[in-house]
Here is the input.
Amino acid sequence: MTPSPQPPPSPSTRAGREPSGAGSGAGALCRIRVGSAPDSWGVWFADDPRQVDWRRFLDEVARAGYEWIELGPYGYLPTDPERLAEETGRRGLKVSAGTVFTGLHHGAAVWERTWAHVADNAALAQAMGARHLVVIPAFWRDDRTGAVLEDRELTAGQWRDLTRLTERLGREVQDRFGLRIVVHPHADTHIDGEETVARFLDATDPELVALCLDTGHYAYCGGDSVQLIETYGERIGYLHLKQVDPEILAGVVAEGTPFGPAVARGVMCEPPSGVPALEPVLAAAQALDVDLFAIVEQDMYPCPPDRPYPIAERTRRFLRSCGA
Here is the structure.
């Protein structure tokens, strides 16, 4: 049975370190490449009047000190590779990944529609020099309205379809675009907390399917990110860094609040004020001794246009103090 989100423990005292660049100085996280994403600027959709203009996002993410970005929802940033390369290049930005949403538990009937969506995203990511495609499972309830779209539990047949078709997706994306898929456990989807993540990983081929560990979503659903890294280290292919506010989360869990409204209430908070503590997560990731992207994603939809930049700048400064 899929576990309901559980409040994580209260934040512990965090011991900061002196800032040091990646690869230099004691304790530097030399295998971790830090970036940010449109999500940290309140961008959830390709086009929404409540979101900041894509030019402002690119300007501010570069000014805040990040070198790497994700593409975000397809169509938010320019989809012409030459134009996007010019816009990112002159700001000193590089692309780490694209992102797609899939509903592969629905079986073969959705494959062609899914692939058309994936191919557009993967082609742009490939053209921009990215090596990853973040794959997010479909929501079982609407992330804006909270309307229940389907049962939150998958049948055995749906689990087979999900794992089999995700492996197919991994193979096709790898063969055609040279990208590795990293599946993103996410609140209000069928892959969320410890039980469903373990079931999914145990049922899929490590050569075809890796994991994008989002520290905030995993904590939102009761998981321990450090424990996951230590248990399934060979499956960790990518990181999203975020934290949850434990007090707001406790209310969200008690009230059964859908994810979208929970975000609007501020459940995802600015580091280092929430949980999980990011220092031990980054240390556990560094101990894997592989190169990993760690992309900051602070869900803030919707948010005032002047709110994201100061948070992004402070977050980058905090991560430097952790050695990243």
User: Anything to note?
Assistant: Residues 156-177 form the longest helix (22 residues). The mean pLDDT is 92. The chain has one domain: 32-321.
